[in-house]
Structure of C2H2-type domain-containing protein:
Amino acid sequence: MVYCCRYCGRKCETESGLARHQRDKANHPYCNTCERGFGSWDALHQHYRDSADHVYCVTCERVFATENGLRMHYRDNAAHPYCTACERVFSSDSALHQHYRDNDAHAYCDECGRLFASDSGLKRHWRDSAVHSYCTDCDRHFPSNKALNKHTCTHAYDDLTYAMGAITI
C-alpha cells in the first residue's frame, strides 16, 4: 500500500513513514506535541488555541515550550502590551495604560504615559520635569499649574499665620 501526503503529494511506503514526513516538514500543518496532522493551517492554529496542552501566542500564532517562554516573548516583544509587574498581557496599549492608572501598585505618570520602577522614581520625575506641576514644599503632585498655584497659596498662608503667632503685643 502507498500512503500519499495530502499537503505535498509525496508518496510513502508506510503509515509511520508518512507521519514522519509530515512531522519533519515545516511547511505542513502538523502538531509535533500531539503527533497529529491537520487539514489546514487554520485548523492547526485552532487546535493550539483550544488545547490546554499548548502554550500559544494568539497574536503571533507561535507555540512555546513553556509558560516562561511565552512570558519572555510577551515581555520582549513590543507588539504585546505587557505589564511586567503583574505578568499580564493586554489587548491594546490603551488597555495597558488604563491598567497602570487603575492600579495603585504601579508608579505611573498619567500625564506623559511613563511607568517607573518605584514611587520615588515617579516623584523624582515629577520634581525634575519642567512640564509637571510639583510642590517641593510638601512633595505633592498636581494635575495642572493652576492647581499648584492655588495650593502654593496655602503654604504662604501657613507661613503668614506662623509669623503672626510670633508677634507679641
Remarks:
- The chain has a mean pLDDT of 83.
- The chain is about 40% helix and 20% strand.
- The helical segments are 15-24, 41-50, 67-76, 93-102, 119-128, 145-165.
